[in-house]
Design a protein that fits this description.
alpha+beta; Rossmann fold; Dna Ligase, domain 1; D-amino Acid Aminotransferase, Chain A, domain 1; five-stranded parallel β-sheet; five-stranded antiparallel β-sheet; 14 helices; 32% helix; binds adenosine-5'-diphosphate; binds magnesium ion
Length: 427
């Protein structure tokens, strides 16, 4: 099979790394890829949003299966465009990707079909939004409707904060068209978890649980990032919870999407709050998580390619996935200043020494080659990943590897996985 991975981050490197190990693969391309991906795939310099060029490339190279990593090309309709040219695609159609591309769509779908989520209302007018927040009371959450690079959801501790969020989005247009409408919802309390399911539109197959770390500093301090690290499995989250989420959230959502004429195929990412009254959906994403995919690919046992192909072609899924019993962790090494402003082009040293450690795989996120030297090229630079006999061992190995790598301004969290290590197994 000839495959194309679309995207250039750590998630895409992890997917390409796993795909490249499949005996089914005769040729693997990535677009645009990155220097890490280039070790397992041939990179074509086409941006993930360049729909015309990607479609032409896939047709010319007789791609059998395209795997789309990021949400933006999916919401722009890349899957539809490729399918029109006869290329099987892992990733939802434009109509189905609305589940992530529009929070208003997702919330209204959940309300219509009884999928549990926070109480909410939708507004385009600031005056009405301000009146509503006064009926709801603080704390509450104001969310831009469209894609906002992870910056569009604001948890407001006071009405003044809510007024400011409403002003910025509806009047200040800080997110442009993505903020023309806002969802305002009640603030939920509980543990936040992510749940992933592969689906062909009818059946759904849960992936193992993985936990992300959004805030930039140790102890969940500081501003949110794209994700500073992840681990899997999560000792407190097990098969019972997975079954409950399949039954109460995933299956009803897939039925709803089918009933709306938007069958959902690909990876469904459900962001949830486990409240005292049960799980509540915070949001849906239409693609794999980054960095959760990195530890998951280290743990997935067996061939990923037939699974992706079965989903893409709607051929039916196997009854379950197999996971290695070991634990995996990814520690993200970030540029100085990230998630704020940061410099790029800083030379990276020590990768070979880090990769010598048994069980270590380093996924590239924001790297580039300049005159033959590996340099930084993004906020999240590398995902230092390790597989270990248990989480403690994986964490120790990953941090040993991280300590061998350096670039100017490099910073990373020192407590990835600590929450699980401190807590006895439960649910
Ligand atoms: N109703 C809610 N109650 C409490 N926290 C929330 C709520 N909605 C979102 N959050 C918090 O805000 C974060 C971002 O919201 P989310 O809906 O995932 O949007 P996005 O990922 O697009 O920014 C969540 O990960 C969660 O921590
Ligand atoms: Mg989110």
């Amino acid at each position: 099979m000839r495959l194309l991975v679309v995207g250039s981050g750590g998630r895409e490197h992890a997917l390409a790394w796993k795909i490249a190990r499949s005996p089914e693969v005769s040729k693997l391309y990535a677009a645009p890829g990155n220097p890490g991906i280039a070790r397992v795939a041939e990179c074509a310099p086409i941006k993930a949003e360049a729909l015309d060029d990607l479609t032409a490339f896939a047709a010319r190279e007789r791609i059998d299966l395209a795997v789309v990593g990021p949400e933006l090309p999916l919401t722009l309709g890349l899957a539809d465009r490729l399918a029109d040219r006869g290329v099987a695609v892992f990733g939802p159609s434009r109509a189905a990707a609305e589940l992530e591309g529009s929070k208003v769509f997702a919330k209204e779908l959940m309300a219509k079909y009884g999928v549990p989520t926070a109480r909410f209302a939708v507004f385009a007018e600031a005056v009405e939004a301000r009146a509503y927040v006064r009926t709801l009371g603080a704390p509450l959450v104001v969310k831009a409707d469209g894609l906002a690079g992870g910056k569009g959801a604001l948890v407001c501790r006071s009405l003044a904060e809510a007024d400011e969020a409403i002003r910025a989005m509806l009047e200040g247009k800080v997110f442009g068209r993505a903020g023309e409408r806002v969802v305002i919802e009640e603030c939920l309390e509980g543990e936040e978890v992510s749940f992933f399911a592969l689906t062909d539109g009818e059946q759904a197959l849960p992936l193992a649980f993985a936990q992300d770390h959004k805030p930039v500093f140790d102890g969940d301090q500081g501003p949110n990032t794209g994700g500073m690290g992840a681990y899997s499995p999560v000792p407190t989250l097990g098969e019972r919870l997975a079954d409950e989420l399949l039954e109460t959230v995933v299956t009803p959502t897939l039925r709803a999407m089918a009933a709306e004429g938007r069958p959902y195929r690909g990876l469904l990412y459900v962001g949830l709050m486990l409240t005292r009254d049960g799980p509540r959906v915070l949001e849906f994403n239409c693609r794999f998580g980054d960095p959760e995919t990195q530890p998951l690919m280290l743990r997935l046992d067996g061939d990923l390619v037939p699974l992706l192909a079965a989903v893409a072609r709607g051929e039916g899924l196997p009854p379950r996935l197999h996971w290695r019993p070991e634990a995996a962790v990814t520690v993200v090494l970030a540029s100085g200043g990230y998630p704020g402003e940061y410099a790029t082009g800083k030379p990276i040293a020590g990768l070979e020494a880090a990769e010598e450690l048994p069980g270590v795989v380093i996924f590239h996120a924001g790297t580039a080659l300049r005159e033959g030297r590996l340099v930084t090229a993004g906020g999240r630079v590398l995902g230092v990943s390790a597989l270990g006999a248990d989480l403690e061992a994986a964490v120790e190995t990953a941090y040993e590897a991280a300590s061998r790598i350096s670039f100017e301004g490099m910073h990373y969290r020192r407590d990835i996985g600590q929450r699980a290590l401190r807590r006895p197994p439960g649910r």
